[in-house]
Design the sequence.
């Protein structure tokens, strides 16, 4: 009986997790209310220069996805984007981008650390969609990007996952 109860509990958790998926939204059909009901409260919100609402859903600090839902003036979903991809990380440019630019590209960081040379932000993600790792961006004292690197997480295999 105990195993059956555990199985039922895990099934319910799996179903609830499936409901809170931004990918279940339908571009052009889903409304602001649908987003709120299906995905919940965003991690961050802001209004784009063209008036679109941008709702970020970060799963950090240990999560590996950050989705951005773009909602148009008509209240309908225009776009759902996974921000933590190598393609988006490649668009981070040293020396010219600042913290706001990086946050626009990758969403809110999972971790922020200050070293003597400046601040460092990191995001967990899956390299090639399978290997756990980190995208790391270091900033100069003036807030511009000093360096960026992708690292594989050597400790992930030790977590028993």
Sequence:
């Amino acid at each position: 009986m105990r195993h059956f109860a555990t199985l039922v509990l895990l099934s319910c958790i799996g179903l609830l997790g499936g409901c809170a998926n931004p990918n279940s939204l339908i571009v052009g059909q889903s409304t602001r209310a649908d987003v709120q009901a299906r995905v919940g409260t965003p991690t961050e919100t802001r209004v784009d220069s063209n008036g679109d609402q941008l709702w970020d859903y970060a799963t950090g600090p240990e999560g590996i996805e950050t989705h951005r839902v773009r909602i148009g003036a008509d209240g309908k979903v225009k776009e759902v984007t996974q921000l933590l991809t190598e393609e988006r990380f490649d668009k981070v440019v040293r020396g010219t981008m600042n913290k706001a630019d990086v946050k626009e590209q990758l969403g809110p960081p999972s971790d922020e650390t200050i070293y003597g040379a400046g601040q460092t932000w990191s995001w967990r993600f899956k390299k090639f969609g399978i290997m756990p790792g980190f995208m790391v961006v270091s900033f100069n004292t003036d807030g511009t990007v000093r360096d960026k690197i992708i690292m594989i997480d050597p400790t992930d295999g030790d977590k028993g996952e």
